[in-house]
Amino acid sequence: MARIVVLLFLCLMVSSSYSDIVQCLGRTCSEHATCQFASRFFASCQCNPGFTGDGETCTDIDECLTKDTNNCHQNAVCINTEGSYRCECSSGFIGDGRNVCNDIKECYSHPCRGYNATCTDFDGGFSCTCPPGLTGDGISSCNDGVVCPDSSHVCSAHALCQYSPKLGIHCNCLPGFTGDGITCQDVDECAEDKHGCHINAACINTEGSFTCQCKHGFLGNGRTVCEGKLLLFNVLS
């Protein structure tokens, strides 16, 4: 008798599974849908999260169309993907795109290479301004119109030829370099501990300047902010 009961139970289990399989296979679900069983004898196609439709046809939901359907930061750009979306901080900002998009303080890395140029930070960018009396973009050069007249003033590529009543025509190394103007060597701000990077950031020396980069597991601008957890860049809907 016990053997008969066990056999009946197994038959019912097989019958139930077969019924579900038949119901599921009898419906043509979209590749972006899942066959959901409401009971042993009924199944329907349900679109996966991030898609909409009747289950047999599923269309991607563009979460980026309205602010109500995504959680991107105000300083981030929403990028739609198939079945989801991701948030990327706008140019001039750094973060996970969703909770954090901090302004990058470009002036910390001394991007203005023009002689005595002034760097000014603003949200999403920066500007370089040459000092009074000099002209140029401030980023690459600030010139006073003086041309070195002879080979005795062959300035370094990292120097500016200038004139002053006291020194006359002379070569002056650009910021981030040191020397007599004819020979200019890079100043390693990282080795001399002149960088001011965050305690959780690493100083990386570059030609004429340096950058601060948050260590692995931290996120921020490397100078004032290095948050102590790794934030995901892919945001699911």
TrEMBL record:
Record keywords: Disulfide bond, EGF-like domain, Repeat, Signal
Gene3D superfamilies noted in UniProt: Laminin
Cleaved signal peptide residues: 1-19
CDD domains tied to this protein: EGF_CA (cd00054)
Residue ranges of every copy of the EGF-like domain listed in the record: 20-59, 60-102, 103-143, 144-185, 186-227
GO MF term set: calcium ion binding
Keyword Repeat (UniProt): yes
Highest taxon in the source lineage: Eukaryota
Name of the protein in question: NID2
Organism: Bugula neritina
